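Bench notes, afternoon.
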Amino acid sequence: MNMETTAWTQLNGLIHAQQDRRPFRRATLRRIAAFARPHRKPIVRFLLLSIVTSLLAVATPLLAGRVVDAIVSGGPPGTVVRIALLIAVIAVVEAGLGLIERGLSSRLGENLILDLRRAVFDHVQQMPVAFFTRTRTGALVSRLNNDVIGAQRAFSTTLSGVVGHVVTLLLTLAVMLTLSWEITLLALALLPVFVVPARRMGTRMAGLQREATQLNAAMGTRMTERFSAPGATLVKLFGRPAEESAEFAVRATRVRDIGVRTAMSQYTFMTALTLVSALALALVYGLGGWFALRGTLEPGAVVALALLLTRLYAPLTALAGARVEVMSALVSFERVFEVLDLKPLIAERPDAREVPEGPVAVEFTDVRFGYPAADRVSLASLEEVASLDTREGGEVLKGLSFRAEPGQTVALVGSSGAGKSTIASLLPRLYDTDSGTVSVGGVDVRDLSTDSLRATVGMVTQDGHLFHESVRANLLLARPDATDEELWDALRRARLDGLVRSLPDDLDTVVGERGYRLSGGERQRMTIARLLLARQRVVILDEATAHLDNTSEAAVQEALTEALADRTAVVIAHRLSTVRAADQILVVEDGRIVERGTHDTLLARDGRYAELHRTQFDGADEGGALQRVLPAARILGERAKELR
């Protein structure tokens, strides 16, 4: 590696290093050691190989000097040939060891990436829903990509580089001092010409690089939002393509300007270093040649010094910036550990129980709940804010109690923001209560195993979210071991089998991002099919028919007839026509149940429910929805009991 290449490598490392000012913590090293412990054997082999490679790198210049001495002294040709063959053997061995070293480095780094990514991915999956509602997805994905790769460099590049460069530096310096201490000291005097400009230029260009990275991230986020189906639709509806293009062009233009400045700065820097490199070699040849002509230095020593000069500047220049590279790697580890240090609010108890067999009841007893403050569930860096809001969200549910008997349907109605969806989120334990209990089958959900609770409680939300995968993959999320026959049965019961059979690849047809290749009603029926496939005994419907036209709503209602049959159900609805036939209707306002009863009872009471009813209908026809679905569901449930 010549001096220009070394300087360029160092400059590039300084540019891309994460210049973070956070204090260094010894605990970070201990945690890094814990991650590295399973890989200690390949790490030791890697370091030993780096040392051997460094020793060979110093041997070649010395042998080249002996060739020159043999030629000048007129020694036997066999000596020159033997030394030349030895140089060739060393070159072959060095190349082979280099390949092995590279293989070990790659495997070590990739294994570390695998461990870190799996640790972060598994940990993030345990985080509460509040974490995902606050976190920017791009920032979180960056932890799994950029920061994990930055941490990998600590083992695959920085560690071996520091060890190899220290060994090479000590050996080279010792040999050069032995050959000529005068030339060695003068060569060392030129070191600041390499190091100082690289550090200053690297810091300046690192700032430009960070700005370019931020701008690229902003453009990436903007493209992700604008190029999604709903984002593109919104832009087209409001007719702002020109404004969007102009805002995008401002950032893109700045990135272009930074690219030009960076390229010119790099070229200027490298041109200057090429000149310094030539001057350094001129110094060695000039002063060394003068010593050789005076007879105080062998001609071969001059050649050896010239070759060793590169071996000297390369490690010195690299080690000068090693601290920045090490700190950059530590920053990456710190950012990964930040995510791993976030404690999940929901944790399964060691002695977790299973939900009892048979039909189950659902009960809320004096439940109080408020959404957690941001500092309990998120990170400022993931939200891309200066500091997190430490204020609690305030009490949402205030001493709420009700019970849904096995096979009953309980409907929750009330104003927006009253706490209905919060109630629904506590039942599958997306959050835990602050006080009081939520029970399924007579057991507090906090005492149930996660798998058992998920197998018992199913939920259909109003957005009908689907992954950008095939119909099959979206359904198998509910039951990975389901057969094709069971998939088609669930689709038939959800009134969706005809549509899926008409698709180009039926079950293997990709539904598009968030299922946008399907209509709203079709997406809802797909989620209902997923629910039917899971065979859960408790069903939560959170505005399952919201935002649907009459035709789609009718199709979804038919599917719901199957989904609610012989199941305990909690139904959230704004349209009161969908809950007339519920066994019990709860009117929720400001986190409290202010009324409860059947449709007719609540109307006769002329309270809040009657007020909501008059506001919605005001004399209009209120026929539809669950007053047709629920009786049919009961009939199906009774038939199922008879069959059992």
